[in-house]
Write a structure and sequence with these properties.
Cytochrome p450, four-stranded mixed sheet, three-stranded antiparallel sheet, endoplasmic reticulum, iron ion binding
Amino acid sequence: MEPLGPALGAAAACLLLLLLLLLGRRARGHGQLPPGPWALPLLGNLLQLDLAFRKLSEKYGPVFMLRLGSAPVVVLFGYDVVREVLVSRSEEFTDRGRFPSAEKDNKDLGLFMSNGETWLQTRRFALATLRDFGVGRRDIEEHIQEETGLLLQRLAESRGQPLNPGVLLSAAVGNAICRILFGKRFGYSDPEYLHVLRLLAENFLLESSIAGQLYNMLPSLMDLLPGPHQTFFRNNNFIQDFLARKIAEHEATAHFDAPQDFTDAFLRKIEQVEKGNPRTVFTRENMMVTLFDMLAAGTESTSISIRYCLMVLLEHPAVAEKMQEEIERVMGRERLPALRDRAAMPYTDAVIHEAQRCLDFVPLGFIRTVRQDTQLRGFTIPKGCTIYPVLSSALQDPQHFRNPEVFDPGHFLDETGAFRKNEAFLPFSAGKRMCLGESLARAQLFLFLTAILQRFRLRLPPGVARVDLRPAVSGILNVPRPVELCFCPR
C-alpha cells in the first residue's frame, strides 16, 4: 500500500483530532453516558438488533445505550432498574417517548401518546369515568358474565369441530369496553363491528412487523414508500370513521344531565364544563383519540391473552386438568364463575398469571423519554433521550422466577399451594403510566377462561401434534400465531 502523502496525512490527522475534540465535548456536555456497542454512522445499531438484550446487559450492565439510526436509546434491563424508573422515579420518566406510527394519528392526544397536562387531565377523567360506569364494581362483572354466557353458546355451536377463536374472543372481550364507551354491545355477526375487530387485530401484527418497526425508526423515509405500513394507517382511518359515527349518534341523543356511557360523559365535559376555555384538553379531537386508545387497548390485548392461555393449556394438558378439577370443586358445572371465586382458586389464578408472564405481551415496555439531563445509576441520560424499560427483563428475572424460561404455575404458589404475589410480575407495566384497564382485564381473563374450562375440554384438531407458542411477530408486541382449537363439551 502506498504511504499517505504529507498533505493527505496532515488532513487525516486534523480530522482525527477534530473527531476526538467533538467526542470529548459530547462527553463533557452530557457527563458519563451509559456504555454500549459501537454504532455505525446513520444506521446506528440497526444491524445489531439480533443481539439479545440479556447478552448486552451481561456485558454492559443494567443500563446501556444503543443508537437506532441517529437517535440514542437507553435500555433498562432487569427488574430492579425497571421498577426504579417506573415507580420510584416516575416523575422524571413519566413522559412518553416518540412513537411515529402512533403520533401520526394521535397528535399528542388521548391516553397513550400524550404528555404533560393533556395526559394528566385525560387520564384522571378516564379513571373517574370508568369507575362511574362500573369498572371495579359488581356492575361490570354482571356485564362480563352476560357476555360469557353468549360466548359459551357460540363455542358450543362448533360441536367440537376445529375453530379459530380469535375474532370470537375479540368480540366478547370488546363488548365489555363497548358497553362502557357506547352504552351498548354488538352482535357477534355485526359486520361493521367484526370488520373493526379484524382491522385492530391486523394493526397489532403490522405495528410489530418489520415494516412497522422500520416506520418507527425512519418515518420520513417510510412515508414515501408503499408497503404494509400504509395499510396500518388506512385501517386506522376506517376505525376513526366508525368512532366518528358513534360520536354523532351520541350527539343526537346526548344525556348531559345523566350520561349513559363514557362518550356521553366526554361530550358533557366538552359542552358544559370546558366550553369557552381555549386552553382546555377536553376537545372533540382528544375525545376521538381517547376512544380509539381505549377501544384498542380494551379489546385486542385481553383477547390475545385469553387465546394464549388456551394455547398454553393445550401444550400442558395436566395443568388444564388440574385447573378443571379446581373449577369443579369450587363452582361446579352449572353456575357461571364469579370474581368472588378467585380467592378460593389459587392454582387457576397462578396459571393465568404465569401465562401472562410467558406471553410477555409488551416486551420492551412502552417507551419513555426524559425532559432534562437525568442521572441514573451513575450515568447521565441526555435530555430527550428515548428510554426502553424492558418489561421482559422483569418477567424473566431469575432472581424472582426460579425457571424463567419454563412455564411453571409454581412461580405464583407458595409451599402450601396458596397464591403468592410476585413483585416482578409487570405485564401491565407499573407506576403512573400503568394500564388503567388492569382491573377490567384481570376480571375478564378470570371469568372468560374459567367459564370456558368449566364447559369444555380443549383438544387439538385431528392431525395436529402440538401448538406453536412462538409469536407470529415480536417487536413492540409479542402477538401469538393464529390457531384452531376444538372446544369439546364436557
